[in-house]
Each structure stands twice: as structure tokens, then as C-alpha cells.
Amino acid sequence: MVPPLMFMFCVVGILLQAAFILVEHREKYLPAVLLKGCASLVFVWIGYQGLQASPDPSFAKLVFWGLICGAVGDVLLNLRFLSKSHGQKIFLVGIAAFLAGHILYLSALIPLSNNLLLSVLIGVVVAAGLLIYIFKTMSVKIAFKIFGIFYLGAVIVMTAVAIGNLIALQIPNRLLYALGAVLFTISDIVLIFNTFGGKTRYSMRIMNLSYYYIGQLLIALSLFYAVS
């Protein structure tokens, strides 16, 4: 079970994330980076506590390192606003950190999967369809296309496997993980459409950042439950 203290940390993290969203919108990028880093440290700390409590250390270690990669990606994606000349490079390195996190998440899920091939196939088909639509309707630089293929493919396949694992055995760990993965995927899709869709909307930015953060919290909290 999740200790009550962890839910208190979740509330603190959500408040920090909300403050970050507000400060970033006001274009105060240095305090925004600091707030974002603090908010990310919350889900890393929850993940660390979950690692200590988890009955499956091999699963928990991979997820914990995935959370760390997410925190690194968080900071890098917001550091790009502080360095206009290197913004694109910093953004791509941040995406690479998130990609590493998704690979770690997927690596944690694979040993638990009873229908891995089907889940991966569904994930690949969904990712391919979405990427085709994005490349046909949006103007995206080649570097972002290359990263997008691997990144979006990884996150959607990871989510498909998480959902497949939940369907095979519905336990709290898999439910929290699958919900977190779905929110993470929705967040990334919203980010892509908001970044490359031609017009940036603050409402979509709020959705992107909120879904992402809650998704990370759910994945971190899933470590407190037994894995079967």
C-alpha cells in the first residue's frame, strides 16, 4: 500500500508543477526551471521510496531510473528558453533523456507481459499511423522527424504493453502504471500538436504539463504495490 505521506508529497508536487506552469507563462524562465526541477524531484523521491518498499527490486530499479531520466528531460526542455542560440540542441537532448526513460519503463514491463508480441504490434501500428498523420499535416524539421519516430514509437509501444499487462492481470500496480502511461502518451501527443501544429495554445500547454506530471506520479506510486 502507498504510505499516506506519499500522497502528501504528491500534493506538494502538483502545487509546484502548477506554480511552474504559471511562472513559465509569464516568461520568467529561470524561476520556472527551478520550480520544474523541484516538482520533478518530488516524483523521483516518491520513486526512490517505492524502490525501497517494492517486492520486485529489478522492476523497481528500472522504473526509478526511468523517473530520473524524466526529471533530467524536464529540466533540459525548460533550459532551452534560457539559451536561444542552443535551444534546439538542448530540446533534442531533453527528448533523448525522455526516450531513455521510456526504454527503461518498457524494459521493466517486458518481463511481466503475457502477450508481448500482440501489445508491441498494436503499439507499432498506432505509432506509425500517428506519425504518418503528423508528418503529412505539420511542418517538422528532419532532426525532429528522426527523434519523433523513435520517441513516439517508444512511448506508444510502452503504453500498449502496460495496457496489455493490465488486461492480463488487473492488480493495483498494473492499473496505476497503465493509467500513468496513458496520461504520459496523451501529454506527448498534445505537446507535438501544440508545438508543430502552427499555433501554440496556453490551454494545451496546461494540459500537456498536467497530464505528464500526474502520469509520472502514478508510475512512481505503482512501485508500492506488489508486482505479479
Describe the structure.
- The chain contains eight helices and no strands.
- The radius of gyration is 17 Å and the shape is globular.
- The protein has 228 residues and is mainly α.
- The chain-level structural class is mainly alpha
Number of domains: 1
Principal-axes shape call: globular
Give the ordered list of helices and strands.
HHHHHHHH
- β content, as a range? under 5%
Number of helices: 8
Total beta strand runs: 0
What gap, in angstroms, lies between the N and C termini? 15 Å
Largest sheet: none
Radius of gyration: 17 Å
* Helix proportion range: over 70%
User: Low-confidence parts, pLDDT < 50 over ≥5 residues?
Assistant: none
> Mean pLDDT, as a whole number?
90
Short synopsis of the structure:
The protein has helices spanning 4-25, 29-53, 57-79, 87-109, 116-137, 142-168, 172-196, 202-221. With 228 residues, the protein is mostly helical.
